[in-house]
Amino acid sequence: MPQNEYIERWQKLHGKRLDHDERSRKKTAREGHQRSKDAQNLRGLRAKLHQQQRHKEKIQMRKRIKAQEEKNVKSSTEEQSKNPVPAYLLDRSNATNAKALSSAIKDRRNEKAAKFAVPVPKVRGISEEEMFKVVHTGKKTKKKGWKRVITKPTFVGPDFTRKPVKYERFIRPMGLRQKKANVTHPELGVTVQLPILSVKKNPQNPLYTQLGVLTKGTVLEVNVSELGLVTTTGKVVWGKWAQITNNPENDGCVNAVLLV
Amino acid sequence: MATLLPPPTKRQKRETTEKSQQQQEIQGIPENLGSIRVQFFDQATGSATGPAVSVPVGDTSVKNLETLLNTLQGNEEDERVPYRFTYQSQDDKDNLTVDILQDLYQSLLKPGLKTTEDTVQLYYTPQAVFRVKAVSRCTASIAGHGEAILATSFSPVSSSTMVTGSGDSTARVWDCDTGTPLHTLRGHTSWVLAVSYSPNGAIIATGSMDNTVRVWDAKKGQVLGGPLKGHTKWITSLAWEPYHLQQTGRPRLASASKDSTVRVWDVVSKRIDMVLTGHKASVTCVRWGGTGKIYTASHDKTIKVWSAENGVLLQTLAAHAHRVNHLALSTDFALRTAYHDHTGKVPASDEEKVAAAKRRFEQAATVNNQVVEKLVSASDDFTMYLWEPQSSNKPVARLLGHQKEVNYVTFSPDMAYIASAGFDNHVKLWNGRDGKFITTLRGHVGAVYQCCFSADSRMLVSSSKDTTLKVWNLRTGKLAMDLPGHRDEVFAVDWSPDGQKVGSGGKDKAVRIWRN
């Protein structure tokens, strides 16, 4: 038993106080009073924190009230959705939305202009000085200065083994390696954490693509088998491309958007 | 770099040839096995046909058994029927069903299921005398509809015309031989959800989201009068009065609607003949039986049986625990095609047509000298029920096995099978007589929307959300043909009653015609 759960332990041994329910009811009933007192009397940082918390709570409350109101409204004219469905799929809410996917995607693909459009079209240039740090340890290495450490997060495939020290020109630090990306589906607005399969293109430099450097604007291949997308031939889609939208070196995670 | 294997040595080659020779020899039947006693049973009724017959094991191929059974039944030379034989083990525990593919030795004796000492009980099902070839290629992908295709139906007359209903509020008639549009049926103001040919193939009825039903001349593609107004919500399903029950020149049509009523229309005078009210929620499916009954399924969990004469509620079949999605009658195929049979000969006069339609219906529905119409219903509670509404309000069998909603169910034309398509990506096959589970047809990777038997009941085509059609061989329970090609989910599929073509349509707005 954790040390701090002494109250639970006491209650297990002796049971609750006889007036426990009464007291807890009163406590919750008085909560509003206590809160208003706090709101009026707190000063300084504690007041600030209290306000912040209260602000968040109120947002949640409003959302919940709004949802409730929407649920109560009885609309006489049922909204007709835009894409036609057969009679046996009408009145089925779940069947339609999960598959906004491929039709919209395919329509977009037909438009030639959309073919080369990516969510992050321009990236900041990253110089080699920023990307690599020269390693100065060891006698030979120090003299010649040919070894580099990559300072950005990288993706390293599961079958990678390090080369002997003598031949290893680029070191990809373990602490900066990423295996998964938080991928957002742009149409559905769903974000899923998916395993990265490979780095397809780093816009900075083909060398970075080879090394698997993850910077903003890099195109990845992610494993989408969980999403259950299908191709025209009815096969399950396995890998799909996604583009990184954040600066992984700043955030410590990889956020990407699916290219559809 | 791939490693190249060295070519096989002489010894390896010799061994493989020896092995293949041995395997070939095993395929044959040993000479000295003597004979085996065979007793035939009718699959449809379960009753024995003729006495037990002793047959030499060497002569027990399916062809020979067919000849024997035909002789036992006293069929003349020209009315010989091909049969399919199955062996069902008697003890209920394992409930094994073996299909006799080649001969009794390979199927029963060699696996040790039976010995030559036993009497083998073989269940036979008559097969269609004609054969439908599996469709294998897309002959036409016809653009034309501006929106997704929601319903499709072949003409009962031939496979050369087909009608599709679409989300662009038109229905279109296609010439399937040339892959060209024939007519565009314009008039509805919203999605066309249901299309149906009349049993004689002269009239097309369409039901729409705009709460109306319209009838069209199938030949000319012109509207026959104005819309049939009366429903207050959209139309979900249509059913024509069977041809042999129609008063001459006064065909009737039943339409089911979301407004929880079924209306029976006099198509010629455009009047409401009857309104069948009683359901408490949306009516999903309507079927007009050949014995003058209308069957309706609804979201209120019940199936109701109405008299087609006066609209009286005869029965309420309640067993489902969730909305009932679809109904199928064992005689659906015979009713749909009326007097059009596989020979393509059409009777000359109207009386002969009615007589032919009646004869075909009775032939299909007669079991044990009784006209029995079976009904199977699919539901959102993941189960199906098999009913015999004539004899009882209680279901004959409960068909369990699907793991998600069952959307579509259909009887095979020879009534031997029931196929059900569910949102759990599977098509399941059931025995049409007692509802026993036969097999699961696995292969789709998305929800299966519809399925349709070929006219000879040897194959099944299913359409799915995963954008493919798949053709299944029922005998082996395996995939016969995978038909990719649609670019989005396939909502509607139909196999023409003469078995030549399959038509499909879906979200990608293109109608596709498939043939062998």
UniProtKB/TrEMBL annotation, chain A:
Gene3D superfamilies hit by this protein: 2.40.10.310
Cellular component, GO, one term: nucleolus
InterPro entries found in the cross-reference section: NSA2_fam, Ribosomal_Se8/biogenesis_NSA2
Protein name: Ribosome biogenesis protein NSA2 homolog
Residue ranges, compositional bias (Basic and acidic residues): 11-40, 66-81
Family (UniProt): Belongs to the eukaryotic ribosomal protein eS8 family. Ribosome biogenesis protein NSA2 subfamily.
Keywords, in A-Z order: Nucleus, Ribonucleoprotein, Ribosomal protein, Ribosome biogenesis, rRNA processing
Chain positions covered by the region annotation Disordered: 11-83
Subunit record text: Component of the pre-66S ribosomal particle.
Subcellular location: Nucleus, Nucleolus
PANTHER family associated with the record: RIBOSOME BIOGENESIS PROTEIN NSA2 HOMOLOG
Keyword rRNA processing: yes
Record's function text: Involved in the biogenesis of the 60S ribosomal subunit. May play a part in the quality control of pre-60S particles.
Pfam families: Ribosomal_S8e
From TrEMBL, chain B:
Coiled coil, from the record: none
SMART domains linked to this entry: WD40
Entry similarity comment: Belongs to the NLE1/RSA4 family.
Main location: nucleus
Signal peptide: none
Cellular compartments annotated: Nucleus, Nucleolus
Location of the NLE domain: 36-90
Keyword Transcription: no
Gene Ontology CC: nucleolus
Keyword Nucleotide-binding assigned: no
WD repeats: 142-184, 185-226, 228-275, 276-316, 399-440, 441-482, 483-516
Gene3D superfamilies in the record: YVTN repeat-like/Quinoprotein amine dehydrogenase (2.130.10.10)
GO biological process: ribosomal large subunit assembly
Region (Disordered): 1-31
Pfam families registered for this protein in UniProt: NLE, WD40
Keywords: Nucleus, Repeat, WD repeat
UniProt cross-references to InterPro entries, sorted A to Z: NLE (IPR012972), WD40/YVTN_repeat-like_dom_sf (IPR015943), WD40_G-protein_beta-like (IPR001632), WD40_PAC1 (IPR020472), WD40_repeat_CS (IPR019775), WD40_repeat_dom_sf (IPR036322), WD40_rpt (IPR001680)
UniProt name for this protein: Ribosome assembly protein 4
